[in-house]
Amino acid sequence: MRIDEREIGTASAPYVIAEMSGNHNGSLDRALAIVEKVAEAGAHALKLQTYRADTITIDADTEAFRISGGHGLWGGRRLHDLYEEAHTPWEWHEPIFDRARSLGLTAFSSPFDPSAVAFLEGLGVPAYKIASSEIVDLPLIRLAAATGKPLIISTGMATAGEIEAAVTAARGAGCADLVLLGCTAAYPAPIEDCDLRALPLLAEMFGVPVGYSDHTPGLGAAVAAVALGACVIEKHVTLDREPGVDSAFSLDPGELAALVTETGRAWRALGRARIGPRPTETEGLRFRRSLYVVADVRAGEPVSAGNVRSIRPAGGLAPDDFGRVEGRTFRRDAVKGTPLTWDLL
Fold first, then answer.
1. Which structural domain, as residue segments, surrounds residue 120?
2. Predicted pLDDT of residue 317
3. pLDDT at 3
């Protein structure tokens, strides 16, 4: 599949998506600065989240509308308050997208309700991302799929049946280009809960390219995901470690640059399934061990450990042949440094 003419799949280097989320901390200037740093880091896409507090929840204060008290980042907070703080104002989308495009970044978003899809269509986004929590919102998936744009669907928290329903809904509504992202929808996510070995299974079960939406600290999970077939990597990005709703599990610009570099290296390192010497190993083959004459000898002298040894370079008989030649006599004189060959014996 392609997004903005860039091929996405295992034949290409990983497509790195920088998720801004709420890391703008309520400042458009900060949001635009993040865009510039994302471009400098070499990421391929910038992603926003398109919702208003009132389109994603309601202003209520019962227990159902509060984050559990034990949550490490947002414990006890009301959903409406959290989303009001974290949302990206809709009037910011166009200047953010314009800045991203001017810097060579693809810009798109995660819609959270039908009004967001309509709004983003008006901005001409080239793709849609469905967040993990919205994988059960099949009408939203069908609406995004009906645009004909590529869909990227995160699978955090989802059962195999829920993923199947989402894929069926997307396909049924006309989605031809679909990527599923493995994801652990915890913020931050414990590294032990990544279960990256599920990525090949996800690809096999649903016949689509897979990627990884990573909420763990650091780069290790994302790099490992590439080794298991991930062709898309999504990571939250912040400008700096200034406190914000998502900063605790976000990369700073330097870390994002390292992510782009290291996932690219991991992809290149995969190569192809082959066993045997590579062209770059040609010189090394010259310096394998072999049997050499290590002291000047005269014709008729027997081969011994004193005058023949396994040394570098190659060129002589195999080291394992010593037992076959020990005690045999030299046919002719040989100087130190002569490779031992059968015609000498």
1. 9-52+87-270
2. 98
3. 95
Q: Given 227, 244, 270, which residue is the final one in a domain?
A: 270
| Domain total of the chain | 2
Whether residue 262 is found in the same domain as residue 283 = no
Pair (125, 42) in one structural domain: yes
Phi and psi angles of residue 237, each rounded to the nearest 5 degrees, phi first: -130, 140
Q: 27 with 174, same domain? A: yes
Is residue 123 in a domain?
yes
149 by Cβ neighbours in 10 Å (0-12 / 13-18 / 19+) ranks as buried
Query: Is residue 185 located within the same domain as residue 284?
Result: no
Burial class (CB in 10 A: 0-12, 13-18, 19+), 169: buried
Task: Give the pLDDT score at 228.
Answer: 97
Find the CATH number of the domain harbouring 304: 3.90.1210.10
In percent, the amount of the chain with pLDDT more than 90 equals 93
Write the pLDDT tens digit of every residue in 242-272.
777 888 889 999 999 999 999 999 999 999 9
